[in-house]
Amino acid sequence: MGTNPRDTIVEDVVRAPYEHHRTWADSPLLKDRAFARRDVPLDRTEDIPPPEAWHDAVPEVFWDGHPDEVAAWRRAWEIVGSKVRAPEPGSGFSRNYVFTKFSGAVFVWGCCFITMFGKYGTGAFPFIRSLENFYGAQDSDGFIPRELDIRNGLSAFERDDPSSVGGDIFAWAEWQWYRLSGDKARLAAVYPHLLAYHRWIRKHRTWKDGTYFSSGWGCGMDNIPRMDSTLYNECFDHGHLSFVDVTFQQILDARLLLRIAEAAGIETGRAELAEEAERLTRLANERMWDEEAGLYKDLDRDGNRVACQHVGSFWALLAGVAPPDRARRLLAALEDPRRFRSACGTASTSMDDPKFDPDGGCYWRGGVWCMMEYMIAEGLAACGLADAAHRLARRHVEAVTEVFRKTGTFWESYSPSAVEPGRIWGQLVRNEFVGFSGVAPIALLLEHVLGIRATVDRIDWTVRLPEAHGVRSLRLGDGTLVDLECAARATPDEPPRVTIRSSRPIPVFVNGVPASVGTPDPQRH
Fold it and tell me: What is the mean pLDDT of residues 132-147?
């Protein structure tokens, strides 16, 4: 008598009752995986830079009359250097990475923001490679965990949990690195991974109108009071909302993926990305914009704008969503002391919101976050509001520096009510947090306060400060070393007098005017 195939299936189920079905199809983009998990990592403990590298192999800024900002720059590099570690056995990680001692895990948002100041420290450590630990953990359909356990390399959440993915700024980090390095081969290698991830999030985290949802933890802004807390958990639920910040991040991601595809000479995905970015930009300006508030807002399940005003609205600047008139309205909100202009920078929840917490900000109920200040400054500059970006960046850097002067360290968040560290439920947040907070004493200082923007092909220097200032041993991605020095001026209107030295010829523009670059110095090699 023959065997009934159905009996075999039932018998298998009985033998393995807790096995899950694999219910996804492989992405054709990931047939040739450039970044695979490894039993033996590519990086090892002996590849970790020695302490002296964080003095000798990173740039040095100077700013007369501002010794604390210079000391904060140096200390930030020392702290991040002390947090570089090698992969744990059994983690599957391939690369050394920065670990900020948070939940025994590394996070997409944190690791990406670290690269945005770490790009200047490649003489000591190639920060961009740490993202390969996430690319290696990517499932065959494109899913990348938001949080990876450093011991076993596993996601902290089930795939369908709203908190399992989020903070999709890989393309932003990779594009910044490319601008400084000119490494098109890396762009070509990462693009399939990033496009597959973008498609996964679009498939699994959108409503029928194409807007995106997440959770408090998923979006990185843990306890923003944007949803009805009697019905939903603001940390873990999506609240049936269209998240304004996540929607804008995906528009930004689509537009940066288009730039990456163009630079790398890749056609795949361009049409869908362009269509999505244009469609969502139009939807955001038609439905998410609140004319009275001068902000973009989340949408509830009925399509109504949610009352809560929060820092996520300002992603519209960087994502290219806000037209010029609305960019100026967003700037007005940033400068409004009743809403967002606070003691240390931009309050994460508007200070006129009934759930705003003046006691240190209670994390995202008003707390000021360095990486949000960086996003805002970059967005303002992208909208042609570079002077405003300088003004807001300087205000925040000075607050972070004052707290550093008083406490000797950097904090996870800062208070909106006083120039002090942030708090959560009355307790101080984590310190030594470099980590994403390193964007303030390093990237914001160099790019938006000192006004120095470098790519592998040219350097643009907008001189605003009257004091003598500049940077020495600024390393471009190809190894070029550059010194940029501006002499003191009697007034900000006096033409700047600059001295520039470089290990190879490179165009430098000072306030938009070509500057003379000194003969390449053999000692710069």
Answer: 96
- Residue-wise DSSP of 233-290: -TTT--TT-B-HHHHHHHHHHHHHHHHHHHHHT--TTHHHHHHHHHHHHHHIIIIIEE
Residue 521 pLDDT class (50, 70, 90 cuts): low
Token digits for 153? Answer: 């390399």
DSSP codes joined into one string, 457-482: S-EEE----SS-EEEEEEEPTTS-EE
What the block records as the tokens of 169 is 């700024």
Percent of the chain past pLDDT 70, that is, above it, reads 95
Half-sphere exposure of 385 (CA within 13 A, CB side): 25
CA proximity to 344, closest of 412, 388, 403, 405: 403
Q: Please give, one letter per residue, the 3-state secondary structure of 293-361.
A: CCEECCECCCCCECCCCEHHHHHHHHCCCCCHHHHHHHHHHHCCCCCCECCCCECCECCCCCCCCCCCC
Check if the beta carbon of residue 507 is closer than 8 Å to that of residue 457. yes
Give me the mean pLDDT over the 202-212 stretch. 98
Per-residue model confidence (pLDDT) at position 38: 80
Instruction: Specify the DSSP class assigned to residue 2.
Output: P
Q: pLDDT > 90: what percent of the chain?
A: 89
In angstroms, the CA 424 to CA 192 distance is 39
Q: What are the pLDDT digits (tens) for 223-245?
A: 999 999 999 999 999 999 999 99
Q: What confidence tens digit (pLDDT) does each residue in 449-496 have?
A: 999 999 999 999 999 999 999 999 999 999 999 999 999 999 989 999
Using the predicted structure, report yes or no on whether residue 14 has a pLDDT greater than 50: no
Closest CA to 218 of 127, 156, 282: 156
CA 50 to chain centre: 26
Structure tokens at 215: 């959770």
| Collapsed DSSP state (helix, strand, coil) of residue 213 | coil
Cis peptide before 435 (omega within 30 of 0): yes
Cβ atoms of 422 and 361 closer than 8 Å: yes
Which DSSP symbol is given to 142? S
Rounded Cα–Cα distance for residues 477 and 120 (Å)? 9
CB half-sphere exposure, 9, CA atoms < 13 A: 3
pLDDT at 40: 84
Q: Residue 362 pLDDT more than 80?
A: yes
User: How many angstroms separate the CA atoms of 105 and 103, rounded?
Assistant: 5
CA atoms within 13 A on the CB side of 145: 19
**Beta-bridge partners for 212:** 206
Asked if residue 170 lies in contact with residue 197, where contact means CB atoms within 8 angstroms, the answer is yes
Rounded-to-integer distance, Cα 293 and Cα 280, Å:
21
Residue 20 has pLDDT above 80, yes or no: no
